[in-house]
């Protein structure tokens, strides 16, 4: 195992299009780092750069003590799990797992032992003689994971490994993956476009957009203190509402900061009754009600636009009804209207 | 099974049987004529079935016309051409599809252009070339020009583009050298297409007439179709003999086809990736 360091990495395509711009981040030895961002943000490219499948335009990539910029993938001691699994279709599960050790000339007995151990860890011992086309989606995914585990690489690279599976299986494998990470103590970089996956899985997460790092922090911090308007809107579901000061009933009580501000309120931070004395108040008309089981998603139109609130109502609500919502000042996020950067409000 | 699907299936089988019949009928008839005695075979329209089957035509054409020699020539040429062109098409097709190198697009275009040039247009320059290097009347004269088969290269290239690049990336990360990837991953994945190209090249080489006729003028070096045409000129009245020659020319095709069909009917890609 080893730490991974990415310093000021840029990737500019031959046509001049910049895919990654000055990206710096690192995964500590044994850490599970999640890279999350919308599609096209450059997160898969980042993984391919680390794997050596593409070359960096500028910057340094270090694995452990080694600078690997110039090394081909074969010599980087990384393993990668692809979104589409990319198993070798003409080889059995056993051969798929064994291939990496086989090309390195590992003695047969040790190879066999290692394949069986990893297969047992992943619960695919019974599948060893099957071909990939004879496996279910989950089994293929486990085989792909096993292939990566077999060599005990310094760094695991996982490129949306679960996105091709259905939701229940995805949740199951996500738990398994987290457990696996703990038991292997491996350095992992996990790329996903699914912010909920990033929140639940990562020890730290890197939010990437437009080829730039937006924020690097623990999931809790990213959620509680998003660095800018993009992160605030991207992380968390349903997404944060963005409001101007005069959306609230009493503009004067909205905390102000330097320059023009935009305020963010997460849908679940609204409440149907006042909590404390300095709660802000917002009045709107219910346009749509959607039950989420114990909670209700309400779409309201207020004076200046629309807002989504997730509530646990104490009485039946009707579409068309006027309703008053409260939000604690502490739940208010503020962003600079022009730059989008987070602005700290005075308590 | 509902009546509708059953009717549909019956119709399909009927249609396919009809097509197979149309294709097979001339082949079977020629084989049948080969087994007829001279008067029977020479009738304006020979009967469908020999009344007194005989191998005399086969024996005659082998012993008196040295067909064995021409047969050997054809086998050598077609087999060598097949082997060489599969090798070339396999590596060139893969390289053009999946290896980054300078001038790849230009080469791709040139190969495409090669598909469009008719063989007849090449006969003269080819002959000049081979005469200069003293390879006329040599097997190499038939094998070498066919070894770089542009159709084969284009087919392999297109097939290779359909194989996800991630499979090759995975092998790279697994530590395999480029040569190892080619040997252990690419070739097995291309196998169905290589088999198809091989059969195609074998058949084309086997049936080729114009270039072998020009390049192989020395007695005893001709291939079967050329030799057969020569026999035809001498013995145009001996239909049975000609039919025996034609049958023996067809036979290897049938063997090659039956032996290789399972390779190119197989689809190995299924199941490698999520659908």
Task: Sum up the structure in keywords.
heterodimer; A: alpha+beta; six-stranded mixed sheet; elongated; B: mainly alpha; disordered C terminus
Task: Explain what the structure shows.
The complex is a heterodimer of chains A (347) and B (275). Chain A is 24% helix and 30% strand. Chain A is α+β, with helices and mostly antiparallel strands. In chain A, β17 and β18 form a beta hairpin. In chain A, α2 crosses α3 and α3 crosses α4. The two termini of chain A are 44 Å apart. Chain B has a single domain, classed as MetI-like fold (Orthogonal Bundle), CATH 1.10.3720.10. Chain B is 76% helix and 0% strand. Chain B starts with a helix and ends in a 10-residue tail after the last helix. Chains A and B meet through β6, α2 and α4 of A and α9 and α10 of B.
Series of H and E elements of chain B: HHHHHHHHHHHHH
Count of domain modules of chain B: 1
Rounded to the nearest angstrom, the radius of gyration of chain B is 23 Å
Oligomeric state, counting identical vs distinct chains? heterodimer
Largest interface: A-B, 34 and 24 residues
Would you identify the CATH architecture of chain B? Orthogonal Bundle
**Sheet with most strands: strand arrangement of chain A:** 6-7-8-3-9-10
Q: Roughly how many Å apart are the termini of chain A?
A: 44 Å
Number of strands of chain B: 0
Mean pLDDT of chain A: 92
Mean pLDDT of chain B: 87
Structural class of chain B: mainly alpha
